[in-house]
Amino acid sequence: MTLAMTKSQRTLGLYGLIAIAAVIAPFLFSAYISQLTVLWVMVLFAITWDAMGGQMGYNSLGNIFFFGAGMYISAVVQIGLHYDVAEYTAAYGAIKVDFTPTQYYTGLVLGTIVAAVGSVLFAFLLSWVVFGLRGPYFAIGTLGIALAAGELVGAWEYVGAGSGISLPVFPGEPEAGERFFYFAFFVAAVLTFFFFRWLYQTRFGLAINAIRDDEEKAEAMGIHTMRYKTITWALSAFFLGICGSLFGNYNIFIEPLEVAFATVVFGIPMVVMSLLGGKGTLWGPVIGAILYHVIKEATWKYFLGWQWVALGLLIIISVVFFQQGIMGWAQEKWPELFGIEVEEAPAEGEEEAA
Amino acid sequence: MAAMIELRNVSKSFGGVRANQDVSMDVPAGKITGLIGPNGSGKTTLFNSIVGYHPIDGGSIRFEGREISRLKVPQIARLGMLRTFQQTRIYGNMNCVKNMLISVPHRSMGYFEIFYDHSPGELERAERLLEFVGLYAKRKLLAGDLSFGQQKLLEFAMALMNQPKVLLLDEPTAGINPTLINGLIDRLKRANEEFGITLFVIEHNMRVIMNLAEHIYCLAHGQMLADGPPDQIRADKRVIDAYLGAH
């Protein structure tokens, strides 16, 4: 790329390259398609977490709740369209679902829509409770919601309790199903990225940054802080709900603790990925998600048994020595590359009488 | 002249400390009113009570005839009553223009308007106000890199950006380079005259407040000690005693 290219041309080129790579990847590396699929899930996780933790300064440890809620809402809708849900779950998979492609896709689309709306409603309801909390109390409060939801669903017979629910299988070749979900998650992640990219350029973006930097001042300026906080949480919930619905169908089987409200596998990494890539930046969560996922898969393959130790080490190193993350560091070093219009501070004593 | 802010018998205690006791006062619309008093006399507590930072124990606070003592900070701010902080509060990690754009008035902003882009008109107004306080040349600097005095000017410009009806200023000249003080007094007066903003100012610097305010209230030990025009306050023996510590 030459320097003569404008910034928008460079950005467009970058998007083009990523899009081409993303489309080719599942065919080129078909052995790794499940890892690549989960990569887009991770990207979506990191972006939605960063809207809360990075851009608004509310470090939620419970965002995974909306992923699990979306998953269960969608499952109940999809099964409920053709069966009695309680009867179906009570049979522990003895009832074999046999959906036609039309039934399958209408169920998936309808379930995903209801999951998105349901997650948003949950976000609005919970915001009354959690946004009374600040700082570490908010983090612990939201973590409590995610953990409690896992336990509650695990005891709820209607949705299969701890045994979970089997979902309809993709109507077609298994390879076609894998590719279908790969592209479904890719599209979901891309939409999430562009939505938040747009959001951060509006008044809304500046207002949530103001809440992050000094909420009391924001209140004193008359900013509807509660409204902004609620909407940001609801927007995160919206995309996480969609992602959860898709993931349930991708996984075919859902259960509360390891799949839906998986705090250790998915909930905490949301935070780690954002921190690693650089929280409060547009690309940070994306880069962090890719890096985290690659490291995670590599340790699973080559250091099995030590994988959690390796990931724990990664968390400690990034939190202690590299708090600004990759993008935060890069922005500090080359601000002009990121279009940040900041001039150097003048030397001391240059202050003139106004 | 109608009072914009009316306080009647406002009391506020923190544990056993009676920070404000039966304070009554009027801030007339369109004027500059001063509030003085020795350290610890309850000036900032009174400000905090007015803007809804903490609930009051008793009494009544009215803004344009409306009881506001039970409203919260952002609600009161949206009614058009804004305050600046003694310890200046600006967004240090953002440049001056962004600080200004954050400060657009939110009182009439609807649910969908919060997703709009900043209009060219807002940007122009932000730059005009930065010019008004003398920070136009520094508009792209990070606010945190400004000197303390400049940060105070920025906070003042942010308050003007919000188009308030009344502005409560907590020691606007404290910690400012003396050469900047005259410029600040001049700008406060112009904000009052040109933009029609009512000012209510806490100030320790006697020269500043005598120069600025048309009517001055003096607090001591949480109670209203005296009030009157600057010349009368300056000559009031009780005020002099309070400041010199005789009591």
Describe the protein.
The complex is a heterodimer of chains A (354) and B (247). Chain A is built from 15 helices and two strands. Chain A has helices at 7-28, 33-55, 64-80, 85-90, 101-130, 135-154, 174-199, 203-213, 215-220, 225-251, 256-260, 263-277, 284-302, 307-321, 325-333; strands at residues 165-166, 253-254. In chain A, strands 1-2 form a two-stranded antiparallel ribbon. The termini of chain A are far apart. In chain B, the strands form two sheets. Chain B has a six-stranded mixed sheet, sandwiched between helices. With 247 residues, chain B is an alpha/beta fold. Chain B is built from nine helices and ten strands. In chain B, α3 (96-102) crosses α4 and α3 (96-102) runs parallel beside α5 (148-161). In chain B, a hairpin with a 2-residue loop joins β9 and β10 (223-228). Classes of the chains: A mainly alpha (354), B alpha/beta (247). Chains A and B meet through α8, α9 and α10 of A and α2, α3, α5 and α6 of B.
